Amino acid sequence: MAEGLTIQAVEIRKGDQPLIALDRHVAPGTVLTVMGPSGVGKSTLLSYLIGTLDPAFTARGRVILNGRDVTGLPTARRGMGILFQDDLLFPHLSVGGNLAFGLAGGDRAARRERIAAALDEVGLAGFENRDPATVSGGQRARVSLMRMLLADPHALLLDEAFSRLDAARRESTRAMVFDTARARSLPVVMVTHDADDAAAAGGPVIRLGDTPR
Length: 213
Ligand SMILES: Nc1ncnc2c1ncn2[C@@H]1O[C@H](COP(=O)(O)OP(=O)(O)OP(=O)(O)O)[C@@H](O)[C@H]1O
Description:
Blueprint: E1 5-14, E2 17-26, E3 31-35, H1 42-50, E4 57-65, E5 68-69, E6 80-84, H2 95-100, H3 108-121, H4 137-150, E7 155-159, H5 167-183, E8 188-191, H6 195-201, E9 205-207
Parallel strand pairs: 3-8, 3-9, 6-7, 7-8
Antiparallel strand pairs: 1-2, 1-4, 4-5
Helix pairs in contact: 4-5
The protein binds adenosine-5'-triphosphate.
Adenosine-5'-triphosphate is lined by residues 14, 38-44, 54, 56.
Domain ABC transporter: 2-211
Organism: Palleronia salina
GO molecular function: ATP binding; ATP hydrolysis activity
């Protein structure tokens, strides 16, 4: 079976209106960029892939991750990580407490070590006890990224994940995401309005809405 993420003959409808039709394979370590005008269904596609499609929509097709059909599985068992533009860190937990949410298993000391290593990896060594409200937007984005990666996802979904960052942070954060995806051979589906994001990703780009819906 093919490694990577296969979006197989997927059709999503809103009521009786066709919204999305897509048939693509995303190879390990590569990024499929999804663009298109507002309201065309980009976020809806990601919600379908990760298993949180709103009941206002109906869908056909299969989602296959590393040869495993995950279409009928609940979100938590699909093995996918998602990042949104709002980083959604829990405000009542420390940075370390937020990262602990990504971790399944391991004893206390091992978890603490993994969190410290994760923070170090994104240039935030020693930030464990910081309140998320006291760190910058770019730093929060990196904490969100590490929280997602600590769960060891097999695919990454990015929904305008870099759009709140200033230009410098945007470039470094997305480089970090793409480098990680390559290093871990993770397929990535990235929704963006930004042509620079698409260029940096270097993979194929599809534009939803180019064909009549
Ligand atoms: N829960 C819902 N119930 C009904 N319609 C919805 C729901 N969520 C989104 N829609 C509609 O479905 C269509 C697709 O929405 P979606 O958010 O996927 O678009 P998008 O391409 O991601 O837009 P944007 O670029 O503005 O984020 C839009 O017409 C939207 O209004």
